[in-house]
Predict the structure.
Amino acid sequence: MEPHRPETPHTPPPSLWPVGFAVGVAVLLLGLIVGWGIVLLGALLTVGFGFLWVRDVVEGTPTAPAAPEPPPPQGIGAAPVPARQAEAALPAMDEEEIHRYPRNVFLEGATLGLGALIGGIVTVPALGFAVLPAFVDQEPQGSDLGPLENFPEGEWRVATFLEDPEHGEVSRRTAFVRHNGDLNGVPSFTIISNRCAHLGCPTQPQGSLNEEDSEEIEVEHGTVTLIPTNPSGFTCPCHGGAYSIEGNRTAGPPVRALDRYEFSIRDGHLWIGKAYSVGEVEGEGKDARIKKYHRFYPGEHVDGIQQILYPFPAPNL
């Protein structure tokens, strides 16, 4: 029978906690681009796996040096052969070679490298899109709606235009445009999308359309049609959605106000820009106070308790 050998402490076996920690860091970085919900998930994963990793390292640390094992018996009644007199089975290794790459050091290095790789994949494209446009000459974005004199102050026009001239008539859109007068020496406009915030049906102005006074204006990227109207609000004929003159929901199933468009003034022309979503408009005309959101799909909440209850909206438009 073999003599009793004292148990010796050893380094902890490899675990998956460092990998989970690296994944948590990657999710956290991804959340900085996608949304705060993903940031929270990444933070929870990072803290949870980091705690488990530290716990394993602390509990697995040896508290006493390992005792040397006695040589195995050479046979019944045989005296052990001293190590200096026996031939070595393998070449002897010095201490530097033995401790050069222990398993825990390799695992830590692999984890940090994986985390750095994932973090680079997530952050480098985002930083590129954020910084590169400042160093690249870009053409002005948007669509020309024509000269400012075609938009009398205080009057509404139903404008149809090409949102993306490269795609032709399939990109034709409709918006309700009102000239609000000057604000700080610059013309102010209200440009409301006709896309209902319920299911996306086309809304209509609550008032007559003076189609006999409509105008067709030739611009660089196509034709813009302007129809005068004097609405008291806007309605959706599909499901009865109703909106105020500023686009706020007043009745029916819509979940928010009508979307709006950005605008700019270039060489005496009104240019329409990107669409954005609005929860509710406070005030009227050039005095309106608006909190802008990225463009959400119809039927999605952008603020309030409803947005918390539905935290995972569809992809942005």
In short: The chain has two domains: 1-64+106-131, 143-309.
